[in-house]
Amino acid sequence: MCSLGLFVTCAFGFGDVMKNGLIDTLDALLFSQDQQDRWHAAQRAADKIGVKSILVAQAVGIQGDIRWMNTDMPSDWIEEYLACGYVEVDPPVLNLSKQKGNMSVDCGVLHRGDASDKREWDLNHGLKAAGFGSLFCSCYKDATGYDRFITLAYDGHHLEDQPASQTELQLFSALLASTIERDTVAPGNGYQPVRPSPLTQRQREVLSLLAEGMMTARIAETLGLSEAAVSLHFANARKALGASTREHALALALTRGFISL
Q: Residue 145 region, left (φ>0) first, then alpha (ψ -120 to 50), else beta?
C-alpha cells in the first residue's frame, strides 16, 4: 500500500456526503472477496464520477520502465503504447516521476510543432483515437520505492466540465494507488500487460533500419552515428533479447511486437 494514510487523512476534511461515499468505496475495495471483485468495485466507483477508464501502474518513471499495469483501457491501445515506447515521451510519466502530484492532459490537441518527439504527438492523438478526451494523472511513491501512476480517463475535454471535483479525483486516485496491486486482474476485456520492451529507443531504431535492409554503414549515416556505435547498439539489443545474432534479435523484436515493419 502506498497512499492509504493520505487518503484517510484527507477524507476527514470533507463533508459527510462526500466522506460517506469515499468510505463506502474504501470498504468495497479493501474487503472484496477476490481480486476481480476489487476491480469491479473500482470500476463502479469510477463510473459514479464519470470516469470512462482507469489505469494503475507501477514503474520506474524516470527510466521509462513499466513493471506492471492494470487497466480497462482497450487492449489494442495499451499494446500500441508499450510496443511504441510511448512511456519514454509520456508527459505525465516524465513530469510526475520528478515531482509527485497531479496533472491533466487534453487528448488530440497537441500540435506537431509543440511535440518534443514524433511519438509524443502520436501518443496524444492515439489517446483521442482510442476514445479519450482528457486524462487526470497522479503519481505516488509506493512502499517498495517505485512510482505508482494512476490515470483516470474521460470521454470529453475539460475536466472542470466533469461531475467530480478536483478533490474527489485526487482522493479516488490515492485510493486506487492504495488498493490496486499487480494481481488485481481487470476482468472482461481487461488487460494484463505483456512484458514491456527491453530495448532502448536507439536499439529499436537500428533494428528497424536493419529490417529495411540497411547495412551498418547506411544505418550509421541515417542516424548520424559512428559504425562502432551502431554495432554497440546491435550488441546490446542481442543481449537484451537473448539473441545470438543481430538477425536473430530482429526476428525476436518483430515477433514480440517491440518493432514493426
A: left
Query: Are 209 and 219 contacting, i.e. CB atoms less than 8 angstroms apart?
Result: yes
Residue type, 249: A
Q: What pTM, to 2 d.p., does this model score?
A: 0.67
Q: 70 with 188: CB under 8 angstroms?
A: no
CA dist 58 and 83 (Å) reads 17
> For residue 105, which phi and psi values (nearest 5 degrees)?
-135, 130
- Residues with Cβ within 8 Å of 213's Cβ and at least 6 positions away in sequence, in order, are none
Q: Do 231 and 216 meet the contact criterion of CB atoms below 8 Å apart?
A: yes
Cα distances (Å, whole numbers) of residue 69 to 66, 155, 206? 7, 21, 28
Element (H, E) at 99: none
H helical segments located in the chain: 4-11, 16-30, 35-48, 75-83, 91-96, 118-129, 166-179, 201-211, 216-223, 227-241, 246-255
CA-closest candidate to residue 171, choices 16, 5, 27: 5
Alpha-carbon span 161 to 113, nearest angstrom:
28
What is the longest distance spanned by two Cα atoms in the chain? 69
Higher pLDDT, 181 or 176: 176
* pLDDT tens digits along 52-90: 999 998 887 666 678 788 899 988 898 888 878 888 899
Beta strands at 101-106 and 53-60: parallel, antiparallel or unpaired: unpaired
Provide the 3-class DSSP secondary structure of residue 170. Answer: helix
Cα-Cα-Cα-Cα torsion 64, 67, 70, 74, nearest 10 degrees, comes to 50
